[in-house]
Amino acid sequence: MSSERGAGERVYRGAVRVFSLVFIVVGLAVLVVTLANGGGPISVGFLIGIAFVGVGAGRLWVGERMGR
């Protein structure tokens, strides 16, 4: 039973990492597209991109701290 729990936890942690990295990549893509199209640091696209990067990085950080 405990080996199933350990395997499930590894899958969960891996999925969290993958989705966190996806959030970071999407945020960076939004930032690049916004800046390439002339958006500034107060534009909606820029703020959304920063939010995605922040959420992804924050989730990675929390996941690493919880894993200790």
What does this structure look like?
- Helices cover 85% and strands 0% of the residues.
- It has helices at residues 2-36, 44-66.
- α1 (2-36) runs antiparallel to α2 (44-66).
- The chain starts with a helix and ends with a helix.
Question: What's the structural blueprint in terms of helices and strands?
Answer:
Blueprint: H1 2-36, H2 44-66
Helix pairs in contact: 1-2
Give structural attributes.
elongated; single chain; 0% strand; mainly alpha; 68 residues; 2 helices
Give the number of DSSP strands.
0
**What about the largest sheet?**
none
Spatial separation of the terminal alpha carbons: 22 Å
Number of helical regions: 2
- What structural category characterises the helix and strand content? mainly alpha
Low-confidence stretches: none
Structure at a glance:
85% of the residues lie in helices and 0% in strands. The chain has 68 residues and is mostly helical. It has one domain.
